[in-house]
Structure formats: C-alpha cells, structure tokens
C-alpha cells in the first residue's frame, strides 16, 4: 500500500495485490501447507474420537445431576410462584434437546466408518461444549434460586431411628406403599402413649428426605398438633413451611384460604399431623383434599383417626421381647454385658412390657449403675408399680395420664334393662380399647391391660396430688399392714394378692377410715385374723371383696374370742357388694334378712372348702361345700339368691324337707 506524498496532487491511496508479487512456487507452497493442516486436524479428531465419546458421557452425567436438582426445585417453585421458574423450565427444554442430540450421535458411532469418525468427532466436541455450558448455566440458576431462599421439599425431623426394629421397619414400608397407592389418601397411625407412633412416622419422613430428588411429593409438611389444639398455631406451622407471611390481625378463615391457595398449586403434597388428640376439621385448616396429595395422622385414639375419614389405619404395638432387650441395652449401656447385672437387667427390661418410652426411660435411669443391688432394688420397685425415679413419673405416667384425662367418663345405669346395660358396657370397653388403655385378650370376648398401663392406673389411684383418695398396693408382697399410708380421706383401698396374716388392732387400724367406700382383700391367701370391731367402724363401706381370701367369717356363738363376726357386716348399712367366705350357714334373724336384701350383688361361700372365682352370671350367688346341711335352714338365703351351688354336702334330704315344710316359695328366685 502506497501513500501520495505530493501535496499538490489528490490524496489517493493505492492498493497493490500482494499475490501479483508472488511467483507460482509461492502459491503451491501455501496450498500444500493448508492441506497439511487440514489433514492434521482430521487426524486429531479421528484419534480423539473415543476420548470425546467418554468426555461427552461424563459431561452428560454431570448435566443429569444438575437436571435432577432443577426438577426438584421446580416443585418448590410451584408453591412460591417465583419468576425464576420460567428460566428453569427453558433451561430444562434446552437440556432435553441437547441430550437427545448427544444420544443420537452416540448411537451413530457404532456403525460409522473410519472416514466418518472425523466428522462425527467434530460434532461431539461441539455438543460437549454445549453440555458444559448448560451445566454451568444450571448451577448458576440453582445458586440464584438458593439465594432467594427456597424451602426444601422434605425437612429432616431429628430423633432416634428404628433400624433395629424389624416389626416397626416393616410397618414403615407398608405405610410407604399406601402413600404410593392411588386408592389411599388419608392414613391413621395410632397406639398407646410412648409406643413409638411419632418415631415410626419420623422414620418415614426421613426416608423421603434422603430420596428428596426422586420421591413423588412436591412438598412434605410436618406439623405437631399436641393435646392443647389451637387452630391458629397449627396454621402458623403450615404457613411457615410454605414460606407464607403471617399478616398481623389476620383471622383464621383468611389464613385457611391462603394456605388452600398455596397447597392447591402443588401437584402433590404430604401433610403429617403428629400427636392429634381431638377431631380436626381439615377445611378450617385450609387443606385441599386433592388427588395425589396425602395426609398422615398420628393419635392415641382410633376414634380421632376416624374423624378425618381415614382410608386405612395402622396400630403400633409394643416391641417384641428381643427388640425390647436390644433397645434397653442401647440405653442402659455397657453395664448390661456384666454377668452379674445381665440376668436382673433382662427382668427389669421385661417389666417395661415392650413399651419403647418405658424402655428408654428406665434404661437411661440405670445407665452406668454397676452394682447388682441397685438393679435388684429397681426391679422390686418396678414390680410394685412405684415410680422409683422422677423421670418415670414425668416421662411415662404423665403422658399416659393425658390419655386417661381425655376419656369421657361413663357409669353404667343399673336401672336399665340387661340388653341396654350390655351394650353400654361394650361401648365403654371399646372406647378404652380405641384409646389403647385396654387391649384385645387372648380369647374372643376378653380384654387385657398392658403392664405399664396397669402400673400407671395404680399410680393414678394412689397419687394424692390428683385427689384420687385411693391406695392401691396389690400384689407387692406385703406381710405387714402399711398403717403409715392410711389417712382418713381414703375412699378406696386395694391390698389384694398380698401375704398379710392379720389386719391391725384397734385403734390404729381401719376404723379411722370413715370415708372408705371400697376395701379389696381378695386373694389374701394368708389372712387369718380380723380383730373384732374393725369392720364395724367402716360406716361408709359400699364394697367388700374378699374373694379367694383365706379368712372365714364366723357367726354368733361359733367365733373365737376377739375375732370379727358376720354380725359386723350386717351393721354396714351402705354395703351393696359383698364377697366373703363364711364358716357355716347363718341362722335366720331379722338383722341378717334385712342386710342381705339390701345387697345388689353378693357371693357367699359357706363351708371349709367353698371357694371359687365368680362369673359374670353370679349376681347373687350362694355356694355351700363340705357341710352337714340336715339341720341348716337356708330358706331366707334362697329367697334372695339367684344361683345356688352345693358341693360335697350331706343331709340334703332333711334340708329339702325343711324347705318344703317351712317355706314353699324359697326356690322362686333361683334362675
């Protein structure tokens, strides 16, 4: 290029073609160089064909991971309505296109000829660059979304796991299967307090948390309801999970509409309502019951579960003995391996009855205690239903008392007919079963009570802080009468199944219990002496149960000096239920006749061997065994008796003759 330097001439620019300055040899050399570079490039692409394929595979794997996270976040964005959702969806479409192209290229590599590999490899490189670019964009979008404060699809709920519990783990799988079923929308999980309902559902929640990217729900919401139900407090938990702002002064109905609107935009959600005590109106909460969404409710009561019209229910039972022992060892620690402690520890664990809460509480209380005497003391206290450490009362008995307090108290109206009474009794029993305070018995038509529930019941009945006015010390091996525990305010006393030989002498004995209404001395197989005058002082007594007791009540003229007689019982004007053993058939007297007419229910076992368990049909029963009844007059008894049993007696003919002569209507009451 030449510039004109003569200023008198126009300022022209001359362009000279450099090729015109070259000869033919220079052009040939340039062409040869260009061909060489092209051949080299094709060779490189061909050689790197395989590595390009591998690089693309790895890049696609990385892109797939980002794609999964983006899909996961999109579910959350369905709730939030973020503008970022549009960008993520556009990115996903581009990913689908590029993955499709990449897969197409990878399929072609199988059949392509050698001369085609260069061209294919070159396309692979282009695709690879696009994949890397999309992956980078996806990560940036996720970071942007994270800065905006997204809520995770599933929040982990902290607490112990049930990995070592085969039955519970199996139930988690069953509940998960129900969550996958289109036929099930609402699931109830119920069982007694401390049995592990929350632990089981927590395990289910945390499994979904681990699989957050692949599980089916757009949002899993965990809400703890508790006994003191407040609609606004429950709504607040749901709203916080949905990143909703709670407006000051907003009423519950408005909050419900806002929650409904948020949840309705989710393709599917799972709502866990934990620890529910009363029926819940899902509409008032603002919960849409749409296809694909699920609700799990945990409660101590089957009736509460049914209040939201559950499709299926799961009852959580106590642990098997091997699982209970394993859980106990985890909480009690290395001390359970000791040869001296281990046998006692197993008995202590067994006293917990497979109830996880009791096992954990007692195990932790005994952790690190190496002296076997401490374990023996704990075992004795547990068997006597005594909360020997404060934590047992706080962590086991108090929660169970909440179930007890929530019951509707019911009494059977004895003025109704038998059919109504039977139905009313069945209703009361079923309510106790549905509240897990009673369980199905081993045989049809029977029930049983869990050991821990029984201990709790005894604790409630004996706890003065609840103004129960009761003392329950049944089956604790008593040999001496516990006088220090008797106060005038007591109304109910149970000393059944103990080794007492005598009741205390006056004035330190039972006669101070002027408010006592029930005295249970049944199964006192060693009881030989009741001092005269003791029972007479119990003027408020309504129930005296001495079924299967060793003590025999004497009649006037046939008693040992200082021993209580049947006449004392006849003086108890409020007595309505009685079960005792009597030495012989009492003689007729106006006093006897009047008090036995007042009794609503009685079991009289007359004779040295007369003793048996009453049945539900024995409302007014007399059993006479191993006696000479030839001179006995039992007409006054039969006039008030529905059931008469006579075993190994003699003189029956004479007795029947006396009945025919003296009282032709004596058998009218017998059924």
From TrEMBL:
Belongs to the disease resistance NB-LRR family. PANTHER family: NB-ARC DOMAIN-CONTAINING PROTEIN (PTHR33463:SF202), NB-ARC DOMAIN-CONTAINING PROTEIN-RELATED (PTHR33463). One of its GO terms (molecular function) is ATP binding. One of its GO terms (biological process) is defense response. Keywords: ATP-binding, Nucleotide-binding, Plant defense. SUPFAM superfamilies: L domain-like, P-loop containing nucleoside triphosphate hydrolases. It comes from the Eukaryota. This is NB-ARC domain-containing protein. Residues 170-334 form the NB-ARC domain. Gene3D superfamilies: Helical domain of apoptotic protease-activating factors, P-loop containing nucleotide triphosphate hydrolases, Ribonuclease Inhibitor. InterPro entries: Apaf_helical, LRR_dom_sf, NB-ARC, P-loop_NTPase, Plant_NBS-LRR.
């Amino acid at each position: 290029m030449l510039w004109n330097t003569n200023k008198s001439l126009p300022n022209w620019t001359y362009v000279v073609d450099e090729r015109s300055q070259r000869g033919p040899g220079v052009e040939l050399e340039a062409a040869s160089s260009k061909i060489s570079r092209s051949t080299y490039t094709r060779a490189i692409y061909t050689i790197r064909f395989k590595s390009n394929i591998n690089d693309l595979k790895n890049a696609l794997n990385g892109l797939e991971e980002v794609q999964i996270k983006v899909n996961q976040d999109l579910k959350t964005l369905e709730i939030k309505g973020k503008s970022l959702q549009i960008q993520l969806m556009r990115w996903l479409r581009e990913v689908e296109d590029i993955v499709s192209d990449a897969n197409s290229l990878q399929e072609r590599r199988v059949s392509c000829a050698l001369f085609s590999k260069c061209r294919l490899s070159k396309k692979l490189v282009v695709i690879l660059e696009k994949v890397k670019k999309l992956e980078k964009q996806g990560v940036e979008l996720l970071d942007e979304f994270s800065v905006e404060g997204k809520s995770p699809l599933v929040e982990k709920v902290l607490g112990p796991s049930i990995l070592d519990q085969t039955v519970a783990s199996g139930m988690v799988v069953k509940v998960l299967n129900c969550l996958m079923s289109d036929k099930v929308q609402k699931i109830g999980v119920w069982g007694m307090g401390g049995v592990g309902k929350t632990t089981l559902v927590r395990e289910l929640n945390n499994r979904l948390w681990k699989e957050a990217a692949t599980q089916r729900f757009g949002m899993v919401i965990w809400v703890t309801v508790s006994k003191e139900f407040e609609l606004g407090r429950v709504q607040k938990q749901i709203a916080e999970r949905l990143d909703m702002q709670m407006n000051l002064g907003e009423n519950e109905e408005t909050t419900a509409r806002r929650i409904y609107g948020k949840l309705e935009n989710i393709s599917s959600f799972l709502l866990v309502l934990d620890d529910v005590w009363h029926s819940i109106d899902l509409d008032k909460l603002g919960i849409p019951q749409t296809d694909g969404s699920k609700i799990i409710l945990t409660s101590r009561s089957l009736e509460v579960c049914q209040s939201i019209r559950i499709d299926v229910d799961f009852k959580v039972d106590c642990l098997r003995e091997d699982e209970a022992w394993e859980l106990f060892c985890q909480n009690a620690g290395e001390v359970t391996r000791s040869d001296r402690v281990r046998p006692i520890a197993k008995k202590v664990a067994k006293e917990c009855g497979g109830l996880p809460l009791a096992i954990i509480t007692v195990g932790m209380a005994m952790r690190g205690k190496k002296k076997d005497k401490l374990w023996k003391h704990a075992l004795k206290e547990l068997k006597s239903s005594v909360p020997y450490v404060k934590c047992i009362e706080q962590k086991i008995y108090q929660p169970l008392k909440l179930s007890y307090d929530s019951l509707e108290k019911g009494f059977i109206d004895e003025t109704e007919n038998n059919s109504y009474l039977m139905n009313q009794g069945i209703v009361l029993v079923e309510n106790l079963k549905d509240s897990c305070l009673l369980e199905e018995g081993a045989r049809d038509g029977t029930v049983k009570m869990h050991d821990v529930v029984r201990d709790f019941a005894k604790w409630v009945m004996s706890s003065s802080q609840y103004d129960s006015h009761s003392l329950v010390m049944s089956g604790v091996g008593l040999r001496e009468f516990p006088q220090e525990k008797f106060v005038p305010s007591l109304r109910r006393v149970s000393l059944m199944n103990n080794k007492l030989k005598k009741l205390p002498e006056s004035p330190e004995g039972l006669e101070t219990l002027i408010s006592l209404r029930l005295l249970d001395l049944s199964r006192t197989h060693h009881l030989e002496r009741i001092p005269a005058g003791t029972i007479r002082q119990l003027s408020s007594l309504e129930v005296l149960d001495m079924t299967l007791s060793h003590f025999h009540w004497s009649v006037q003229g046939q008693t040992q000096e200082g021993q209580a007689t049947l006449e004392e019982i006849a003086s108890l004007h409020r007595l309505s239920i009685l079960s005792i053993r009597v030495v012989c058939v009492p003689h007729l007297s106006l006093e006897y006749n009047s008090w036995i007419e007042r009794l609503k229910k009685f079991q009289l076992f007359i004779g040295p061997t007369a003793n048996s368990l009453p049945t539900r049909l024995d409302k007014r029963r007399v059993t006479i065994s191993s006696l000479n009844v030839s001179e006995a007059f039992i007409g006054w008894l039969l006039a008030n008796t529905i059931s008469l049993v006579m075993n190994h007696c003699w003189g029956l003919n004479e007795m029947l003759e006396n009945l025919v002569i003296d009282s032709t209507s004596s058998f009218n009451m017998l059924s």
